[in-house]
Amino acid sequence: MPDPANPADGGLLVVLAPGIASPELAGLDIEATAEALPLIVDAETALEWTAPEWRALAEQAGQPFAGVPAPATSVPIDCSLVPCVALTYDDGPSGYTPQLLDALAAQRASATFFLIGSAVPGGADTVRRTVAEGHEVASHTMSHPDLTTLSAAAARAQVRDAAALIEQTAGVPVTMFRPPYGAVNAAVIDAVGMPAILWSVDTNDWRRPGVDVLIDRAVNGVSPGGIVLFHDTHLDSVTAAPAIVEGLRDRGFEPVTVSELFGGSVPAGRVSSR
Ligand code: NI
Question: What are the chain's domains?
Answer without folding.
Answer: 12-59 (no CATH), 76-271 (3.20.20.370)
